[in-house]
């Protein structure tokens, strides 16, 4: 049963992401409203997938990715960045920092589900190759 | 409309969240404007404004509201530049931004009304797009006198605006500090997590940035959060807010060596640069865990903090279920009463019923509390409204809001806001004089509009809106209304609230007041069952007082019978129940008599006649009367029989065709029959008004 952590400061956006991923078999969702809360959650419990917004209060998604990749136990955690148009310039930075996928809003349920499936069902090495 | 995409079902939630985002964006934009006027940077407000618009854009893209996406996009783009330039916006950018927010708000309103959002105005988009280069020109080019402790502040991880904010705060006499918080599962279980810590600290300081730090620390902690703050609060207070040790505080100012702050619980000898590269060194400041457990053992912490956003429709649903329970309980009560009357042993049943009643009451207040919103949040739109009026009228106006922590039901708040907007608009548009007129009258050039409110124990919210303008010109109003000059403030208010008066006044500009006052009264008195009062002095100003119930959905009511029909009134509106003895003067043709109450004569109104249900000859024949205040004066309403007191669910009569003054709504008392809930004060007033009009009509005819 994959544990998914969905991080966005917008409650509606988190709900949308969860609604898109819910059909994925047996997944369980935790929501966090900031990058800091996400980091705290990740330090308390293991997750199988992180869906992350870029622009949030205090620290942005890229800083979260950098932090996560700096932790031994989180180095392989699959990360999907879901962000607003206008953050295109951040794509390179996010992927360089270690994000596995980069999707811009508006996304479709199919696209995010496809990304989640690819990351959850592949081996870590495959996932990092995309 | 939009929302045609995959996420159309999220539209209601979208509208609710966008509403909040717009309210906070408006507040931040006003803060930015204030700073611009003073030639200062406002990095925090710029950043918050940017984030609100960024989120708005993303959400609008998801539900396919392209006009909002475009507007938000260009505003966001220049705010991003402003953030990078240290939180400074040029003065020329404020007006287009205000227009941009207004344009977004308009489109969101169109969506909530089920319409299609109109396209974004092309010239506004062009102006917003042109802001970018102007923002870059406004970037500061001067050197800063204050230096930060680069290591303690993680200088490389600070955005320019964050750095600007820290340095600006230091230069302004605030302390720039780093407060470290170490989270753990135990603390999270007790409600102390980064979110609650953030909320607590935000009450004591401006949080500029929070950075996560990883590394093995004593006590098994592998993670800490460094909160970079600007504050005037004491170290001990800050430490307390994050649960005490192992939290630490240190200064961010380069000139002051860390460790010199004398923080209780701080590790002696810790060097300023002890935290290097974002790694918490082993053993850094983690003593006293046992003390921490003690301190955490407070109910407030145990219960956990944090905010949960809930759609109003879900609360309405909970309310509906509760309403069904209340109605069911009434049925149960009747059934038990019937059993008792039939001689069955019902003692235990009655005890259960009593307990059940208490539980329902508790549940009711719990749900009602969930529906309460802060009045301050409701009024967030008013400063922007006044700003717009200031520009449109050329008047200098200061808006003061003194609303404290008062709260009221979301449904009441939603209805009340348009009334307040009308009153504030009237105050600025009509009541306040132009600066030169004010000076000629010996007043300061800037006018004052002050809105204050507080909740009363009786379940009412009292609001006062005062202006120091020219006061209402009774003669001019009377002339415009083609009526005699009123002899009291109440009578003047009656004239002002006449539908249609506003149009004439607006056309002739004869007086300062009147725009939409009929709407204000309709909202306050008829829709909310409240009271509206006014005091005015020529040349000195006008004060409106509004008293509205904090909540309207569930209430304790007195149930009575009149001409064979049952009615209910809210207990809170009834001052006293009296027996109709000692009638000083019986009711005449008008159905109004006088009854003695503790040595004073009180008007006695036949409710049966008022409701036109009286059979001929029995007007005013009721044996009981409910005493209600009508414009501050007691009036007794005669009824046939009192049936008791019970909790009712008030259902508003939404259909405008059946909306009647004096009828607050309808309820089900448990037998499935609809019962009208009356507002006796409003009913009496409406009747008096009808009589006056009829008399006037008669004069014309003759």
Automatic annotation (TrEMBL), chain A:
Signal peptide: none
Keywords recorded for this protein, A-Z: Phosphoprotein
PROSITE patterns: RESPONSE_REGULATORY
Domain Response regulatory: 3-120
SMART domains: REC
A Pfam cross-reference name: Response_reg
4-aspartylphosphate carried by residues: 53
SUPFAM superfamilies: CheY-like
PANTHER family for the chain: RESPONSE REGULATORY DOMAIN-CONTAINING PROTEIN, STRESS RESPONSE REGULATOR PROTEIN 1
Protein name per Swiss-Prot or TrEMBL: Response regulator
Organism field: Corallococcus macrosporus
UniProtKB/TrEMBL annotation, chain B:
First-level EC class: transferase
Taxonomy, superkingdom: Bacteria
Pfam families given in the database record: CheW, H-kinase_dim, HATPase_c, Hpt
UniProt keyword list: Kinase, Phosphoprotein, Transferase
Residues recorded as bearing Phosphohistidine in the entry: 54
Catalytic activity, as annotated: ATP + protein L-histidine = ADP + protein N-phospho-L-histidine
HPt domain segment(s): 3-115
InterPro entries cross-referenced by the UniProt entry: Bact_Chemotaxis_CheA, CheA-like_dim, CheA-like_homodim_sf, CheW-like_dom_sf, CheW-lke_dom, HATPase_C_sf, HATPase_dom, His_kinase_dom
Domain CheW-like per the UniProt entry, residue ranges: 554-689
Spans through the membrane: none
S-adenosyl-L-methionine as UniProt keyword: no
Record SMART domains: CheW, H-kinase_dim, HATPase_c, HPT
Domain Histidine kinase positions: 313-552
EC number per UniProt: 2.7.13.3
PANTHER family: HISTIDINE KINASE (PTHR43395:SF8), SENSOR HISTIDINE KINASE CHEA (PTHR43395)
The name this protein goes by in its record: histidine kinase
Source organism of this protein record: Corallococcus macrosporus
């Amino acid at each position: 049963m994959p544990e998914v952590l969905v991080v966005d400061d917008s409650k509606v956006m988190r709900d949308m992401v969860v609604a898109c991923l819910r059909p994925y078999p047996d997944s369980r969702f935790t929501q966090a409203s900031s990058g800091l809360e996400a980091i705290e959650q990740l330090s308390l419990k293991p997750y199988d997938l992180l869906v992350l917004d870029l622009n949030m209060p205090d620290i942005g998604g890229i800083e979260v990715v950098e932090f996560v990749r700096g932790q031994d136990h989180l180095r392989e955690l699959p990360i999907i960045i879901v962000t607003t148009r206008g953050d295109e310039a951040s794509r390179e930075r996010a992927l360089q920092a270690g994000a596995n996928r980069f999707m811009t809003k508006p996304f479709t349920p199919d696209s995010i589900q496809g990304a989640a499936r690819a990351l959850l069902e592949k081996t870590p090495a495959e996932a990092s190759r995309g | 409309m939009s929302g045609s995409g995959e996420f159309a079902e999220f539209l209601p939630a979208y509208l609710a969240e966008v509403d909040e985002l717009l309210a906070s964006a408006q507040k931040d934009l006003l803060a930015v404007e204030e700073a611009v006027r003073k030639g200062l940077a406002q990095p925090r407000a710029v950043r918050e404004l940017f984030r609100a618009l960024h989120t708005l854009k993303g959400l609008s893209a998801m539900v396919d509201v392209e006009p909002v996406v475009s507007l938000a996009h260009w505003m966001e783009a220049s705010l991003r530049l402003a953030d990078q330039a240290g939180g400074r916006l040029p003065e020329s950018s404020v007006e287009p931004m205000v227009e941009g927010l207004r344009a977004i708000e308009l489109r969101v309103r169109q969506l909530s009304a089920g319409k299609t959002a109109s396209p974004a105005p092309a010239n506004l988009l062009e102006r917003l797009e042109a802001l970018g280069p102007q923002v870059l020109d406004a970037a500061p080019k001067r050197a800063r006198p204050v230096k930060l402790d680069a290591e303690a502040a993680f200088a490389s991880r600070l955005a320019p605006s964050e750095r600007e904010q820290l340095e600006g705060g230091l230069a302004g006499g605030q302390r720039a500090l780093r407060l470290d918080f170490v989270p753990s599962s135990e603390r999270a279980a007790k409600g102390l997590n980064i979110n609650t810590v953030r909320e607590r600290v935000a009450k004591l300081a401006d949080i500029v940035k929070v950075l996560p730090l990883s590394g093995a620390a004593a006590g098994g902690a592998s993670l800490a959060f460094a909160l970079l703050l600007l504050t005037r609060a004491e170290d001990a207070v800050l430490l307390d807010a994050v649960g005490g040790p192992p939290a630490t505080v240190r200064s961010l100012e380069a000139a002051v060596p860390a460790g010199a702050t004398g923080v209780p619980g701080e590790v002696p000898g810790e060097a300023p640069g002890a935290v290097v590269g974002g790694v918490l060194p082993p053993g850094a400041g983690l003593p006293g865990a046992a003390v921490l457990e003690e301190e955490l053992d407070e109910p407030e912490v145990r219960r956990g903090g944090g905010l949960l956003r809930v759609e109003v429709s879900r609360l309405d649903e909970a309310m509906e279920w509760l309403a069904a329970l209340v109605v069911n309980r009434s049925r149960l009560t009747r059934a038990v009463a019937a059993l008792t009357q039939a001689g069955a042993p019902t003692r235990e049943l009655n005890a259960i019923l009593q307990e059940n009643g208490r539980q329902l009451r508790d549940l009711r207040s719990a749900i009602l509390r969930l529906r309460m919103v802060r009045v301050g949040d409701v009024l967030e739109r008013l400063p922007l409204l006044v700003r717009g009026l200031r520009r449109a009228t050329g008047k200098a106006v200061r808006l003061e809001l003194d609303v404290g922590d008062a709260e009221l039901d979301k449904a009441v708040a939603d209805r009340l806001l348009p009334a307040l907007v009308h009153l504030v608009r009237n105050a600025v548009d009509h009541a306040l004089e132009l600066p030169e007129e004010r000076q000629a009258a010996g007043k300061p050039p800037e006018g004052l509009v002050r809105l204050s409110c507080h909740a009363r124990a009786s379940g009412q919210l009292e609001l006062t809106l005062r202006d120091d303008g020219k006061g209402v010109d009774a003669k001019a109003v009377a002339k415009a209304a083609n009526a005699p000059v009123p002899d009291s403030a109440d009578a003047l208010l009656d004239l002002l609230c006449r539908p249609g008066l506003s149009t004439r006044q607006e056309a002739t500009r004869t007086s300062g007041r009147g725009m939409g006052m009929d709407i204000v009264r309709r909202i306050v008195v008829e829709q909310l069952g409240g009271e509206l009062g006014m005091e005015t002095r020529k040349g000195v100003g006008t004060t409106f007082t509004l008293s509205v119930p904090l909540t309207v959905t569930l209430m304790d009511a007195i149930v009575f019978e009149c001409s064979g029909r049952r009615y209910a009134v809210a207990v809170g509106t009834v001052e006293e129940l009296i027996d109709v003895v000692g009638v000083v003067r019986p009711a005449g043709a008008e159905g109004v008599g006088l009854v003695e109450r503790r040595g004073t004569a009180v008007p006695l109104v036949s409710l049966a006649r008022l409701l036109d249900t009286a059979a001929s000859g029995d007007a005013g024949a009721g044996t009981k009367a409910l005493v209600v205040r009508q414009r501050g004066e007691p009036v007794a309403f005669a009824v046939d029989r009192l049936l008791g007191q019970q909790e009712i669910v008030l259902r508003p009569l939404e259909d405008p065709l059946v909306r009647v003054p004096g009828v607050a709504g309808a309820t089900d008392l448990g037998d499935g029959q609809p019962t009208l809930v009356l507002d006796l004060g409003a009913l009496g007033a409406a009747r008096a008004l009808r009589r006056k009009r009829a008399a006037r009509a008669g004069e014309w005819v003759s």
